[in-house]
Amino acid sequence: MTADGESQDSLSAGLSLIALLRRICASPRLYVYTASTLVVVVTSYFLGKEMLWDTMYYHVYAGFSALHDRFGRDYFAAGPQGYFNPYAYVPFYLLIRSSLTPLESASILAVLQSAILWLTYELATACVPRETPKTRVATGVLAVVFAFANPILINEFGSSAIDVTTAEIALAGWLALVAALRNPSVAKVVLGGLLLGAASALKPTNAVHAVAAACIPLFVPGSYRRKLGYTSLFVAAVGVAFVAVNLPWSLHLERHFGNPLFPLLNGLFRSPEYPTGSMLDYRYIPTTFAAALLRPFEMVLPIPSVEYGLAVPDLRYALLAVLGPAVFLRWWWRRRRTRTGAGALALQSPQSRVLAALGCAFLLDWMMWLTVSGNGRYFIPMACVAGALGVVLLFRLCAQRPALLGYLLAGVFGIQIFQLYSAGGFRAYLPWRHGPWYSVTVPTVLARRPNLYIMVGAQTYSFIIPDMPAGSAFVNPGGGYLYMTPNSPNGRRVEALIQRYAPHVRVVTRDPRTDASTQTRLLKPSAVNDVLAPFGLRAQDRNCVNIVVRGVPVLYTVPGAARRRASDKHTEYLMTCRVVRTSHGPGWVFPGQRQADLAFDHLEEACPALFRPRRPGDQLRGDRRNGYYYARFYPGTGVEAWIIHGMVEFAKRYGGREEYAGPESMWEKNVPQVACGRAGTGFLRVVGSPNGVRRIAQSRASPATGPEGRVRSERRVNRL
Are the CB atoms for 62 and 82 separated by under 8 Å? Predict the structure, then answer.
C-alpha cells in the first residue's frame, strides 16, 4: 500500500469517527442517560452514607466471603443470608475496602445503579412507533421520571443492596426479549434468557421475573411452532445461566450442607442444619383475594408496611389497574364494531406486539409476586416496567386528545411527586466523611492470635470479620432464623469449633452504654451466659476488651441514659470476653424447657398454617430480675410464640397484636381442637372454649418494629 493510500484510509477513518460522534451527540439518548446518572448521583449524595441493618448484618460479609473461603471456619456468622450467592456484593466490598472516600464509593455505585433508568427509557420507546420521534422521546423521558419517583428505588441509590444492580440485569433481559419481538432473532431470545438466569442466580427473588418473561416469546410473529421454539430456547438459556453462575458457590454449599442452594429449597434437599419448611415471609402478602384486588389502590396511601417497612406511596400500580382495562375495552369495542379483524391485525405492528407482551408479562409477574412475596424491594424491575407501561397507555388512550393527555400527565405526576416529597420514607442519614466507609479498631490482645468468637445479640456483627486477625472464626448461635441447640446438627457443628479453638474462645456482644469506651465488664453477664450455658460455657466478665467501630449508626442506648457525646455519635462498642467451660457439660437444659417444648410442639401440630417451619428451636428470653420465658420464631409466617407465667401467647413479629392461645398446661397434655389460619396477624381459637379463654390484648398492640421495638416489647411482656 502506498503512502497516499494509507493517508486516504486514515482520513476515511477520521471522518467516520467524526460522523459517529455527531450521531451520538445528536441522539437524545446521550442527554437522557447523562441527566439520569447525574440525578441519581446527586440523590445519593443528599441521602447520605448508607449503613443500614442488612449492610451490617450480611452485605459486607457476603462480599468478603465471596473472595475468602469461610466454610469450615464460620458458622451462620451472617445468618442464613450469609449463605446466599454472594458474588453480586463483591463490587460494594471492594469499594469500601479501597482507598476511596465513602462519597466516591457511593457515587460509583450510584452510576452503576442509574443504568436502570436507561433501560426504562429503552423499554418505553420500544412501545412507540419510530415514525413519531418526538412522541418516542417524550414517552421515554416521562417513563424515566415516573420510574425514578419511586421511594423504594430512591432508597437503594448509593447503597450496598443488590436489588437495583440485579434488577438491571433482569430488566436488560426483558429488553432483549422485547427487541426480539420487533426483529425476531434467536440470539436476542437466548441473550434475554441468559440475563434473566444470571439475575435469578445472583438474587433468587428475580426468578419470578424470569418465569413471567417466558410468555414474551409467545408474541413473536409467526406460527405457534416458531413461538414455542423461541420459548423453549429462552427457558433453556435461563437454566444454563442459572447453573453456570451458581455452580462455584453451589459446590461449596453441597460439600458442607448437602444442599447446593442452602438454605433455599431445603424441603427438597433436606439438609439437617436448617428447617425443611417454607421460607416465605407473609408480612406483605395479601390475606384474601379481595385484599389482593385492592392492593394497587392501597399502595397509593402514605402508610407503612404495605409493600415496605416505611411509607412508600406509589401511584403507578393503581394507574395501571385503571388504564389497562380501559385500553383493552376500547380495543375490544373497536374490533366488535368493525368486525373485520382489525383488532387482531393491530398486533401485527411491532409496537403493539411489544405493548401486549409487556402487559401480559407484567400482569403474570404481579400475580406471582403478590403470592410469594409482596415486598417492594423485590419488584424494582417491574416497578420500572409499570412506569413505562403507565406513560405509554396514557399516550395511547389520549392520542386524539392532546389537551386531556396534558391534564392527565400533570395530575398523575403531580400526585406522585407530592406524595414522594411529603410522605415518602427514606433511609436514615449518615454524614459523609473522609476515611473508610467504616473503621474497626481491634485491641492488641485480640490481634495477637486468632480466636473463636461467639456472637450474642440481635445483630450478627459480621461486618467486623474482615478486620479481625486471619484464622479467626465466628459463630452466631441464634443463626438469624434458626436457634441452635447443643444436641442438634447445628449444635454439634458449634461444639466442634469450640473444641478446635479451645481455650481461645470468646464471646462478643454489643455494649449500649453511653460510657462504653471506659467499661471492662459486661452490662448483663447473666443474659450472655444464658446463651452460652447450653454449650457448657460461661463468660469471664472481668476479662473483657472493646472493639471500636466508627462510622456506623448507633442502634439504641441503655433506656434512660444520657445521649452520647458528639465524638461517639456514630460509634459502636462491641465488648468481647473470654469464655471458659462450666461444671455442667454441653446439652444442659433450663428449668421448665422440656414442658415448654411440649407445648410449642403441640401448638405447631394444631396450627401448621400459622406456625411454620416446625421446630425452629427455643429462645430463652428475659433475665433473672424480671423472670425468664421461652419463645420460638417462625420465619415462614413471621409469627412469634412465647410462654410466660404459664400462658401461651403469640403475635406477628412486626406490628402485630399479642394474642392468647391458652394455658401452658393445656398445650403440654395434648393437641386441643382449634380453628386456625392466617388473616392479618394470624388467628388461633380453641374450639369450645369460653369467651374469656381467647383473650386478645388490644391495649398492648405493638406498632414498634426493628430491634429496638422488639426490646421494648420483650420488656413489656417481662413485667406481666
Answer: yes
681 phi and psi angles, rounded to 5 deg? -85, -5
Cis peptide before 690 (omega within 30 of 0): no
| CB distance 356 to 290 below 8 Å | no
Q: Please give the share of the chain, as a percent, with pLDDT higher than 90.
A: 47
C-alpha cell at 530: 444464658
C-alpha pair distances (Å), 434 with each of 40, 52, 99, 160, 431: 21, 19, 10, 18, 10
The x, y and z cell numbers of residue 399, run together, are 392520542
Q: Residues 317, 321, 326, 329: what is their CA dihedral angle, to the nearest 10 degrees?
A: 130
Residue 562 identity: A
Which DSSP letter does residue 77 get?
A: B
Residue 664 near residue 648 (C-beta atoms within 8 A):
yes
Q: Where are the domains of the chain?
A: 19-48+84-423, 439-581, 593-718
Residue 641 has phi, psi (to 5 degrees) of -125, 145
Distances, alpha carbon 687 to alpha carbons 652, 667, 676, in Å: 22, 14, 10
Residue 675 DSSP class: E
Query: Is pLDDT above 70 for 481?
Result: no
Q: Of 220, 221, 232, which is closest to residue 190 (Cα–Cα)?
A: 232
Phi-psi domain of 339 (left: phi exceeds 0; alpha: psi -120 through 50; beta: other): left
108-157 confidence digits (pLDDT tens): 999 999 999 999 999 999 998 888 888 999 999 999 999 999 999 999 99
pLDDT at 712: 33
* DSSP three-state, residue 344: helix
DSSP string covering 120-175 = HHHHHHTTS-TT-HHHHHHHHHHHHHHHH--HHHHHHTTSS--HHHHHHHHHHHHH
For residue 147, give every residue at least 6 positions away whose Cβ sits within 8 Å of its Cβ, in sequence order, or none: 116, 117, 120, 153, 383, 384, 387, 388
Q: Among candidates 589, 605, 592, which has minimal Cα distance to 665?
A: 592
The cell 397434655 sits on which residue?
A: 669
Distances (CA, A) of 102 to 50, 146, 389, 394, 573: 9, 29, 36, 41, 21
Separation between Cα atoms, residue 203 and residue 166, nearest integer Å: 7
The Cα 642–Cα 620 span in angstroms is 10
State pTM to two decimals: 0.87
Question: Which among 446, 295, 469, 270 has a CA at the least distance from the CA of 369?
Answer: 295
Q: Is the peptide bond before 503 cis (omega within 30 degrees of 0)?
A: yes
Q: What is the dihedral of CA 380, 384, 386, 388, to 10 degrees?
A: 180
The three-state secondary structure class of 204 is helix
Q: Which residues pair with residue 643 across a beta bridge?
A: 630, 648
Report helix, strand or coil for 631. strand
Cell numbers found for residue 130: 419510530
Asked if 181 contacts 128 with a C-beta cutoff of 8 angstroms, the reply is no
**Pairing verdict, β 619-623 and 571-581:** unpaired
Of 563, 196, 142, the C-alpha closest to 394 is: 142
Residues 271, 371: Cα–Cα separation, whole Å: 26
Residue 100 has pLDDT above 90, yes or no: yes
First-to-last C-alpha distance (Å) of the chain: 96
Cell digits of residue 71: 466454610
Q: How many residues does the chain have?
A: 720
